[in-house]
Amino acid sequence: MNSNDKIPFHRAVAAMVWKDLTLERHTRQTLSLMFLYALTVTIMFNFALETKLDAARNVATGLLWATIVLSGTLGLNRAMSLDRENNSLDAILMAPIDRQAIYVAKVLSITLFTLTIEAILVFVFIVFFNKPFWRPSVILILILGTIGYISVGVLVTALTYHTRGRDVLLPVLLLPLSLPLLLPASMAVAGFVSTPPATWTEVQTAVSLVILYDIVMITLGLTTYRYTIEV
Hints:
By secondary structure, the chain is an all-alpha fold. Helices cover 82% and strands 0% of the residues.
């Protein structure tokens, strides 16, 4: 097919993101599942650590990231299941669009879903653990960490899309791959919510690692997604 016949990149991305958002608006499956799961895990952590409030506050950052990661994995799994059930991905692959546009659209859609859940989680964690997760520096790290996690997650879902044990393989492959992101992201957030807040010098390395991870994974996804999705 002539490259001139292809749908422009930005229009293809916008159309696919709109499709995912519209589907979610009608079904309310992905967000509701992510929300219920995240809320259940948070309440469970809160009651488990209720008698040790100081210990709970000390590990609140790790608990927040653990909840985000588990909810994000659930969102990725659900998005993959919807694509299989509706055969929507197969139809998209036949459309005259760049494969990179599919990757970008999926990253944007699932990132939006995850950030929506995170907005609720931040409020819940502030109430339960009395930590200043509302600080702009914390929100920035949460956004950067989410982008990196979903970027590699979408790539892994493409790798496992045609396998039988896809639902099990996704977390098995994704969690180890995301450790280089989650460790510095947790350190950065822990520094920003401490009293007094950490200085930029103290968290510079951790923040730089998060940004570097995002750049590497987005570049890797844009470069290899066209090959992994058609295996």
